[in-house]
Amino acid sequence: MTNKDLANLIFPDIDLTIEDLEKKYPKRDLKEGAKVTRIAPSPTGFMHIGNFMQLVIDYVMAKNSGGVFMLRIEDTDQARLVDGAIDVIYNTLDQYGLIADEYEKDGKIVGNYGPYVQSERKELYHVFLKHLIEIGRAYPCFCSKEETDAVAEIQKKEGLRTGYYGRYAKCRNLSIDEAYEKIKNGEEYVIRFKSSGNFNKKFKFDDAKFGTIELPENDEDIVIMKASTKLPTYHFAHVVDDYLMKTTHVVRGEEWLSSVPKHIDMFNAFGFKPPKYVHTSLILKKDGDSVRKISKRKDPEALMTFYVEKGYPSKAVIDSVMTIANSNYEEWRTGHPDNPFTDFEFSPKKISKSGAFFDMDKLDNISKNIISRMNKDELYEELYKWAETYDKEFAKLVKENKDYTISILNIEREQKKPRKDYVCYSDVKEKVWYMFDELYENHEKVYEFQNIKDEKEIDSIVNTYFDKYYDENDDKETWFEKIKDLSEEFGYAREVKEYKENPEKYKGHVGDVSTVIRVRVTTRSMTPDLYEILRILGKERILKRLG
């Protein structure tokens, strides 16, 4: 009995060879230096900020070089699939405009190197698995989970590495005849890779971020095909897929660095040149005085759905991630505020080696700047698109009052130094509710009066202003002169400077008077330009509001 007999028993229907597949998936016709990258999320959970940083890096590296960016769904862990997770993956790419050059969706394959869903590539994996068994680099293992768990407990007690290696690799030394007989008898088995390394020896490995590092050789016989589904594990599947798809760069979290020896061992077993690996930093956050890894359980901002629900502009989230992905991106963005992020020349060497701090305050500032630079129509469209999903009542209101809403959004907008009121689209309603009668009537009102708090004085100032001074047709300069006249009539300085020079001479200054009007109309002491607010609301609406 030979290895080939054993391989034919396990995979009787596999007639294709690796050479056949190499013809089906030939070398890509790309220019020198073009990078082929892939985002390969597992739908066993929802996309998180770490995935997203890897996605952005994959995308920018491919676009920088005139290469190819692929989306591959790694769904071989069928038992842990989460309903809706695949939709979130596609929606995230769409939301951020990071459209793959090659992908598969709703049964449609775009690209010549698919399928791009791993569960549909089972036969391809079996071709490679059969080859490894034929050359003696893979074997069936009949150990139960209970047996391997028991071995792991012994290893822990003895202070050893846990794993299936050395004298603990029980099925490694089964004869071909014994393995053949067990399979014929219907015993359940997995396929394990037969390692070739010595853990006490080191080999050198070049990582695109860390540079040259030394790692222990692989001596662990890992599972590469599961018993129940006959699908491969991640370790094996990515080796096959990245070889056939001609991936040049694999971007993944640094937690995968310890798996490199296993993967290099497998590439070597086939005689394949491995892709270049880019192991990104862990995303960290400050928690009081300590620093910890961002957590999907503790931190809502860890999940990508958080940013969509809050209404952060896509560009803001991308810029925030790029800022922590490359140390010189922030400086570049300052000099190129309107350029697409793909114009930035990304370098894996400039990824932080000590961890990447994700700062929500920095994201908020980036987002404020981006929203402030939108024109009124662009902001309206983005706001309405967000509200349609996350605040239908507000969406209806802004749709029915489109021109009115646009005029509100345009207050102090299209000017040299626009206001930066909005962090994200979910902020807008809270910032402008007083401009809509429907919201104003139902809103709990807390009037933020400042220096003038006497109710009779307040009523007298406001009533006098709208009875005697306010004219909707006044330009801004005339309007402000009338506010000064009103101030003077009530014993307040026309100028702040006058009041500061002679405070004993006046009750206050023109700013105090304008604040009274602002608060009575809006309830807020801090708002955008009062002249514009009054003009947009109109005198009839204001007087009705004041009763």
Note down, in words, how this protein is organized.
- The protein has four domains: 5-9 and 122-280, HUPs (Rossmann fold); 292-372, Glutamyl-trna Synthetase, Domain 2 (Glutamyl-tRNA Synthetase, domain 2); 374-425, no CATH class; 455-546, Arc Repressor Mutant, subunit A (Orthogonal Bundle).
- Helices cover 46% and strands 11% of the residues.
- The chain contains 24 helices and 14 strands.
- It has a three-stranded antiparallel sheet with strand order 5-6-9. A three-stranded mixed sheet has the order 13-12-14, with no helix packed on it.
- Helix 1 (3-10) runs parallel beside helix 7, helix 3 (49-65) crosses helix 11 and helix 11 packs across helix 13 (360-373).
- The mean pLDDT is 95.
Using the coordinates above, name the CATH class of the largest domain.
Alpha Beta
CATH architecture of the largest domain: 3-Layer(aba) Sandwich
Q: What is the average of the pLDDT values?
A: 95
Q: State the major sheet.
A: 3 strands, antiparallel
First-to-last CA distance: 99 Å
**Tally of structural domains:** 4
What is the radius of gyration? 33 Å
Strand content: 5-15%
Helix content: 40-55%
What ranges have pLDDT less than 50 throughout 5 or more consecutive residues?
none
In short:
This protein has helices at 3-10, 18-24, 49-65, 85-95, 122-134, 145-157, 176-184, 234-244, 260-270, 304-310, 314-325, 329-335, 360-373, 376-390, 392-400, 402-409, 425-432, 437-442, 455-469, 476-489, 496-501, 510-522, 530-537, 539-546, and strands spanning 36-39, 68-71, 103-105, 108-110, 138-141, 190-193, 202-207, 211-216, 223-225, 249-253, 276-280, 283-287, 290-293, 356-357.
